[in-house]
# Entry
Amino acid sequence: MIRMRRKKMWASCFCFAAVFFLMVTLQVITELGNSENKVAVISSLQSGLLEPVERQAFQFKKQEIHSSLKTESDVNHYPILLWWSPLTGETGRLGQCGEDVCFFTVNKTYQHNQMTRAFLFYGTDFGIDSLPLPREDYHDWALFHEESPKNNYKLFHESTITLFNHTATFSRHSHLPLTTQYLESVEILKSLRYMIPLQTKNSLRKRLAPLAYVQSDCNPPSDRDSYVRELMCHIEVDSYGECLHNRDLPQHLRNPTAMDNGNFYKILAQYKFILAFENAICEDYITEKLWRPLKLGVVPVYFGSPSVVEWLPSNKSAILVSSFSHPRELAHYIKRLDTNDREYESYLQWKLKGDISNPRLLTAMKERKWGVKDITQDNYIDAFECMVCNRVWENIRRKEKGWLPRRWSAQVNHLSCPQPETFWFSSSNSGWTSLQEMWIPSFKQSKREAWALRHLVERNRNFTAQEFWTLVFKE
# Structure
């Protein structure tokens, strides 16, 4: 009996050893296959020669290659996408974009690396003091800029925007539109979580103005404070921010970081109307100033993108300042709605019924490849990186087939805004002074800067700041 048990034990040990030996052998074969495929992708990038069988094997093993990379030398197996503006702060990361893998970094020592294929720029930090020149034929430039022109006016001219091959901006026309960058989802628009019944709002009107205004970025290019200042002469407005301030928030909500705080939402939700004024007037530049009141069940009084009607949840969900010739007329209309419950609620029917009837908005939300405040989805920076990565790989594959590379290019409508304008009734206030002395001259000079930058970049060599400014101010 004891001998039988010993025989079984030895048989078990032998089987375990055989299985272990088999696993080790398979691992060695896999690693050898990985190494061969790494050589294949180098060949693809450097010479464009990759046999069909090798290509198929590489695609199959790409995820394994990605997960097994451990050394600095492995970077040279993938196209490099260099953030010239250090937005991400990553010294080096392999990113998986569908079936494609790219190496993303902010390390500028990779500028002249033979594997570098694209330079990524964050618009706010885009300057002339350092650019990746000379620009090789296979070097793409990609622009990520979600902000308004007040952050960097020279980008908003044809001379500059058309320097880029790939774009992610607030314009619907860009390669990766960010128009809905402040809207989490369609469901959050429909949500009644913060909505206060009209009867309660009418009762709150005894201590609250009909309108709320919350801005701490005063006298921007849109000249919004001038309009609100004039509006205040005709109707009561509670202004919580630093601009035209006349009402205090609780101490714990005065920090700008509290703007997404639930308690702040509850305060704004008490109002019937919120002034939703953008800091610049550009097509498709729509921020949380519009989406916030819509989420809270408050009627936005909107001033900003001329195309905003194409993004609203319904035909009657916001009051547009552009529909009124003077703040006096707008004030009269709001007073009328304030005393007529039926008319007022007509602006909220879409929310009460959960009915978003705008097909453009629904389609944009369904088709966008990134999320907002959603850890289950890529953010828009990830989506931007992957868009460029996928396009770089598309051209690598085209080269393998002996085809010419595809040349993407930005158009003027990917990022354009008109010159700032003052309101005709604002010539006696500080907003008018701000626009006349700062924003309008800034816009005009930025146009000269854009022209000079284009001229120097097309010479495809590094240039000095002195050369640049000499050209800007040249007669």
About this structure: The two ends are 107 Å apart (CA to CA). The chain has two domains: 80-180+389-473, 186-360. Residues 80-180+389-473 form one domain.
